[in-house]
Every structure is written in C-alpha cells, then in structure tokens.
Amino acid sequence: MLEGKAIEQETRGFDPQSGKTFVMRTKEEAEDYRYFKDPDLLPLIITKELLKSIKDNMPELPDERIERLMKDYGLSRYEASVLTNLKELGDFFQEATKYTKEYKALSNWLLNDVLGFMNENQIEEIPITPQHLAKLVELIKQDVISTKIAKEVIKEMLTSKKDPDVIIEEKGLKQISNEDEIKAVVISVLEKFPQERERLKNGEEKLIGFLVGEVMKITKGKANPKLVNKLIRECL
C-alpha cells in the first residue's frame, strides 16, 4: 500500500510462510551500471516498406502451418502439430500430396508406419520417397492391394527402398478382384461352415467377419475384402 514514501529500486524475495516480501538487494541507477549511449550508432529508421518486405519474406510460422494443414488437407490438430513440429516429416507430406488426394490416408501411413519404423530403428532420415508412399496409398484406393497387404509392402519399402509396384510384382501380392474367382472360394467356405452360414442368415451379423476371414485364409489375404463381403451376402 502506498504511503507517500519514495519507491526504492530493489530486488525483493517472497516468504511463502509469512506471505510477505523482503529486501534482497538494492538496485542502482542506470548510470552506475555504465549504461551509456553509443554516439557512433546511426539511427534505425523503420519504414512501412521495410516492415512489408520483412513480413513478405518471412517463412510460414508454426501456428500458421498447423491451421493450413487442418484446413487444406482435413487433418486433425494432432496430425498437423506433429507434421509441423517434425519439419522433415511435414515437408515430406507436403511433397507427397502432389501425387495423391488421399490426404488422411497419407498422413496415417506416414505418422504410424513410417515414423514408427524410424523411431524403432533410431534413424532420422525418411528411408522412402514421397512419390513411393503416395503410390502405395493410391494402390490401396484402386483396390490393387488391400490394407492388410499394404502393411507387408510398406515394411519391405522401408527396408529395401523399392517401388511398391516392384515389391507387389516380386512377391505376387496383387489383390484378387475377379468376381468369379472369389465367388468360387466363397461358395466353398459357405459349404464348409453350414451352421455359421445359417446363423448369419438368421441375423448373427458378427459371423460375417468369421466367414470373410476364412476366405482370406484360402486366398492368402489377396481377395478383395469388400468384394468378399458382398459375395457372401449374395450367396446366402
């Protein structure tokens, strides 16, 4: 509380027990610290043009990048924040968006599989190219491979750095989307599990997952799961 007394320049500490402050040391005047103006320094004149030039040439700030990634690519704030904090990863994502419009899937593969591989192996440089990751996402979208097969492909990509098309060809991983071929397998599975077929027919929807799984086993994971699901229902 002011009492009309002169205010002393001093550094004060706080005692949490008494709730009061106390003098630690007094402060001197600026002159005592040898603060003198430098007579050789020219005045700095900040014009509107200078401010505009600085603003125009500034890089994108972190908060701006987060908001842009969320707005332009539909990413969550968490995804956008990770891609901003890890600049190399964010630049990789930005480059990959030139080759696919599946932005959410691209972010998921990058932040889960690619970043997970890097953390597990303690490496800082991304081992694949943006084009290759974007191509993998496109191959899933086009039903060339399933998401399950893509998990196998991405592992090979991260270790061998090969093009996903090459890996799929070498390992024979291309998804089966021929309806007649899959239908034959579906019919054989339904004949093998008549009880499950009848229970599904009577409304036990959880059994669709079991029957799809059996078809996928026979086709070694290569059958198009969407098509398998559709054909099972048609064949009931």
Structural class: mainly alpha
**What is the makeup of the main sheet?**
2 strands, antiparallel
Beta-strand portion reads: 5-15%
What is the domain total for the residues?
2
Helix content: 55-70%
Query: What Rg is obtained from the alpha carbons, in whole angstroms?
Result: 32 Å
Element pattern in H and E:
EEHHHHHHHHHHHH
Q: Span between N and C termini? A: 87 Å
Average pLDDT metric: 89
Categorize the overall geometry. Answer: elongated
Low-confidence stretches are none
Spatial arrangement of strands, main beta sheet: 1-2
Number of strands: 2
Explain this structure.
The chain has 12 helices and 2 strands. It has 2 domains: 110 residues, no CATH class; 57 residues, Arc Repressor Mutant, subunit A, CATH 1.10.10. The mean pLDDT is 89. By secondary structure, the chain is mostly helical.
